[in-house]
Specification:
With about 425 residues, the protein is of the alpha/beta class. Helices cover about 45% and strands about 15% of the residues. Strand 6, helix 7 and strand 7 form a beta-alpha-beta unit. The protein is globular and about 60 Å long. About 50% of the residues are buried.
Length: about 425
């Protein structure tokens, strides 16, 4: 198979899933070609060996200049634009979504969105089709991507199955296991902490906001480490652009290392614990690699939803955390960008003023770090058990490859 791919440029989660899928395709003799921008492009370039080619675009609407000639199918991880491009060109497309349960489609009318879908498929040009998608807001655009794709691979989660059965406009939803790359698991002696800042940069997080969050998160970890006596090495990784800009602003005990995806996974093998915002990909990867996760503060609106998803019984939490919004009166806003900015700005304000909420976050992180140092295996096993209950096993990348081959075979591809 010769596949055109893309991932939503929203942190590193979608890009990490695409990397796992394309690695699996490569192991079976297929080739993958990446098109993207911003954080997704940064991630792809850091893991360039996975792709036969990497093509930057200034905006995803620039896919209009790409010919479908030579591609057998498309695979998009949460990027609606490649789906619109594929639908316009009648190219089979697999859409991968780990947040199907979370999208806010309340009040959404399938009848009202059908003309938009028809306008994409029947557009006068690829540029026009992509512009139609660009004019749709984030959450409805996710609905349209599911409607327009050939098959949607939806990662298992509480509520995902019920939603798939309810929506008439999504007839080809297939539930899959978590999409993970398991090829780097190895026994190792825990010897350091992994602090991951994720991709950070996104349509709602500027470089200035990203730097503010990194300063606050690292200060939080530094104070927590001092409180619990954790004197081991602290390795900080994430978006290379953000790490470079943060150089000289981090506490002395932190070593900034822009690891690629393979490097992060290998580091999980010997991490005492992984300190990270509550992104689903990190939660699932850490569980598969046996590293306890301790949650850093939220970076955007979806992180609180993720935390609540993996904390079904608040009276018996299995994840230590330093979240801000559960300790303050922060209110969500219909404007995603404004709400995200507010989260990060308020976090910096709590850090600067050393408020009671900040002290509570430090204490919670310190307790979690002390527990991981004391009994890493038990903490990791409890988290892995919960992940298994909620999401299933780690075979999603292989499942997506099979689906992609199936949709390509349906139009005559046999490789």
């Amino acid at each position: 198979m010769n596949i055109i791919t893309s991932a939503e440029a929203f942190g590193y989660g979608p890009s990490a899933k695409l990397h796992a899928i394309c690695s699996e395709i490569g192991r079976h003799g297929g080739t993958s070609h990446f098109f993207g921008h911003d954080a997704a492009l940064t991630f792809a370039r850091s893991n360039s060996g996975t792709y036969a080619s990497i093509t930057p675009v200034a905006a995803m609407t620039d896919l209009a200049e790409v010919s479908p000639e030579g591609f057998d199918a498309a695979i998009s991880v949460m990027d609606p634009f490649l789906v619109a491009w594929a639908a316009y060109h009648r190219l089979p497309c697999v859409y991968v979504d780990s947040l199907y349960w979370m999208w806010d489609w309340a009040g959404l009318s399938e009848e009202q969105l059908r003309p938009t879908a028809e306008a994409i498929v029947g557009a006068a040009s690829a540029r026009q089709a992509l512009q139609v998608m660009a004019d749709v807001e984030m959450h409805p655009s996710q609905y349209l991507a599911h409607h327009l794709c050939t098959t949607a691979c939806v990662q298992r989660a509480p509520g995902a199955s019920a939603r798939a059965e309810k929506l008439r406009g999504h007839p080809n939803v297939r539930l899959i296991d978590p999409v993970l790359d398991l090829g780097h698991r190895a026994p190792a002696q825990p010897d350091s902490w992994l602090v991951t800042t994720s991709g950070l940069l996104s349509p709602v997080v500027s470089i200035e906001l990203a730097l503010s969050w990194v300063r606050s998160a690292c200060a939080l970890v530094d104070e927590a480490a001092a409180l619990c006596g954790a004197d081991e090495q602290m390795v900080v990784t994430g978006n290379p652009e953000v790490l470079a800009a943060a150089a000289g602003q981090l506490p002395a005990r932190f070593e900034a290392v822009p690891l690629n995806h393979e490097g992060v996974l290998k580091h999980l093998n010997h991490a005492i614990g992984c300190l990270a915002p509550p992104g689903l990909t990190t939660i699932l990867e850490a569980a598969a690699y046996g590293a306890p996760v301790i949650f850093l503060p939220e970076q955007h609106y979806a992180h609180l939803a993720n935390y609540r998803l993996v904390t079904p019984d608040p009276s018996a939490p299995r994840y230590a955390e330093g979240l801000m919004s559960i300790r303050t009166d922060h209110r969500t806003d219909d404007d995603i960008s404004a709400d995200t900015k507010s989260l990060i700005v308020q976090l910096e304000a709590h850090r600067t003023r050393r408020t009671s909420a900040w002290s509570a976050m430090v204490a919670s992180l310190a307790d979690g770090m002390a527990e991981a140092r004391r009994d890493r295996s038990r903490v990791a096993a409890a988290q892995a058990a919960l992940v298994g209950e909620l999401f299933g096993g780690p075979s999603g990348a292989e499942e997506v490859r099979h689906v992609a081959k199936s949709v390509a075979d349906a139009v005559g591809v046999t490789g």
